[in-house]
Amino acid sequence: MSQHHSSSNPPFPQQQQDLPGSQHAQDPQPQVLPKEYPNGKLAGKVALITGADSGIGQAVAILFAKEGANIVASYLCEHEDAKATQQHVERYQRRCVLVAGDLSKEEHCKQLIDKTLAEFGRLDILINNAGTQVEQVSLTDITTEQLERTVQTNFYPHFWLSKFALPHLSKGASIINTTSITAYRGSDHLIDYAATKGAILSFTRALANNLSGSEKGIRVNGVAPGPIWTPLIVASFSPEEIETFGKNSPMGRAGQPNEVAPAYLYLASEDASYVTGQVIHVNGGEIVGG
What we know:
Layout: E1 46-50, H1 55-66, E2 70-75, H2 79-90, E3 96-100, H3 106-120, E4 125-128, H4 144-154, H5 156-165, E5 174-178, H6 182-185, H7 191-211, E6 219-225, H8 231-236, H9 239-243, H10 257-268, E7 279-282
Parallel strand pairs: 1-2, 1-4, 2-3, 4-5, 5-6, 6-7
Protein name: NAD(P)-dependent oxidoreductase
Family: Belongs to the short-chain dehydrogenases/reductases (SDR) family.
Keywords: Oxidoreductase
């Protein structure tokens, strides 16, 4: 038994049945068999991943390579970590091009897209993941310089990279943005960071609506991690906070990057062909609205 998969459906012919309905008599019959990926869910795809030197970005790069994708790994300056990402990717016989630079600069974002196209001639998946955060007890402690740096690092690259990538994305391509649990429930010591993650959330929804038409057909989604054990945590929080990091989550612990990466894989693959404008929450069980 086989079923032809199509991510788009023609108009259904008029028909009616008595409850509960017969699937056998339905025209056309619903597609129920699992999709097949003999060479991996991302075979032949090219994925550009920012913040891919460590943490969530690194885990996503490795998992994508395992599923057949070639990787462009964007990072700021942690060359040793980035080299480790490259080595992991290459163990799956995939290419990994490392590109260091400051994403808060519009020109570098453009160069990153140009580099991807020069190396691979295509771009199928854009993962906007890089970010920064600085704790402050009060709003009055957040300087204009910190605010500008947080916005320019966390939000502007999502906008710029998506804009520069768009002319080169074909129907079926995927953009996935990393927002945060803080976009939904706030964070008293990360006010500016939470604000940028809220902006990313709204940007994701708006761009998804803009691109979901039949002609463009590019899906845009997000992932909202909760407390995940990454280098950003040890670089941002005090030793006392690190000792209890994640223990307030319903599951009583922090998550690991490789527990978040499968959410990105789902959204990037054809498994999510009917999913756009959505956010997957990987946060250890905290219930958030919206």
